[in-house]
Amino acid sequence: MNQKLAEPPERPAQPARAVRNFSVLLSPTPRGARLARLLATEQLRTWGLPLDPASLIVAELATNAATHGRVPGRSFRLLLYVVGGTLRIEVTDTRGDQLPRPRPTTLDSETGRGMTLVAALANRWGVTQGPSPRKTVWAELELVAPAHPAPEPDAPCPGPACAPYEPPTGEKAPRQAPPLPPAGQTHSRE
Question: Most CB contacts within 10 A, which of 18, 49, 87, 155?
Fold first, then answer.
């Protein structure tokens, strides 16, 4: 009785999770901050990733770099990269002496809500100092796979993903921001 032992079936090769990145130097001006948001939005669209809240976070961090991290003649850097299911947004400027932090505001305040917004939208955020005189403010977003894949352009489009827009009928409850984290370098919504 010669019986061959059954060999376990081969596992299909797992697709390698590509690391995607995008980096650009921009002038520390309002125009440079706007360009950071526009370039990030286009890069996220190219990668097929959701634009919000990432574009809002980029806008806030770039505006802070252009406003509070500005040193004449020195650029700030925007870096986006995706590893696995996480999008990391980094903005590096040359003012390591001024660290961002959420701060209390009043109802009539016209400024000061940027880092509070970043803390509310990002899963994690923080500041990394160095090399001197630089600092990098970063935020991470966990990427969620879309429930329905986006249709191909000019393809027939049956189903709810391509239905015409209908405004919501019910009142939506207001969304509260999470409480501010304790003072420190790294913050998390987990």
Answer: 87
